[in-house]
Every structure is written in structure tokens, then in C-alpha cells.
Amino acid sequence: DIKCDQMSRISPDLRLCPGLRKKEASLNREIRGITTMNQIYATLIAKVIQPLGRIGTLSILDLLSQSKQRG
Predict the structure, then answer these.
(1) What's the CA gap between 29 and 27, in Å, rounded?
(2) What is the distance between the alpha carbons of residues 37 and 28, in angstroms, rounded to a whole number?
(3) How far, in Å, CA of 4 to CA of 24, rounded?
(4) Which residue in 13, 17, 25, 41 is deepest, having the highest Cβ count within 10 Å?
(5) Is 13 left (phi over 0), alpha (psi -120 to 50) or beta?
(6) CA distances (Å), 65 to each of 40, 54, 56, in order?
(7) Apex 43 CA angle, 40 and 24, nearest 5
(8) In terms of pLDDT, which residue wins out, 56 or 15?
(9) If you average pLDDT over every residue of the chain, what do you get?
(10) Residue of higher predicted confidence among 33 and 1
């Protein structure tokens, strides 16, 4: 809602705009999702990829960075 965004710029009081609160909450959820994904990647790397050795690690990290850029 455009009016909503303008209001929030004028006044940082989020009570003026309940939609903004919702937006902020979903953003926070996304950020939490990203950190859990990073934890999953870290676990994967430690348990699965490291035994494959350096070449395996590099190729999988390369794949991960490519998929992050797309998403």
C-alpha cells in the first residue's frame, strides 16, 4: 500500500500501518530461514563434503553460490 509506505516514512510509528508490521514479520522470518539454511549447508559440508576432499568441497560450494544467486 503506497499510502502506508509514505505514512511510515513520515512517522516511524508502525501502529499507523498494520500491513507494515506484517511485512516486517515476514522479512524477519525470511532472514531466520536464511540462517537455518546456512546452518544446514555448514552441517552438510562438515559431514558429507569434507570426506570427499578439497575438490568435492570446491565444486559443491560453487554450486551453492550459483543457486543462491539465482534464488
Answers:
(1) 5
(2) 14
(3) 13
(4) 17
(5) beta
(6) 14, 16, 14
(7) 25
(8) 56
(9) 69
(10) 33
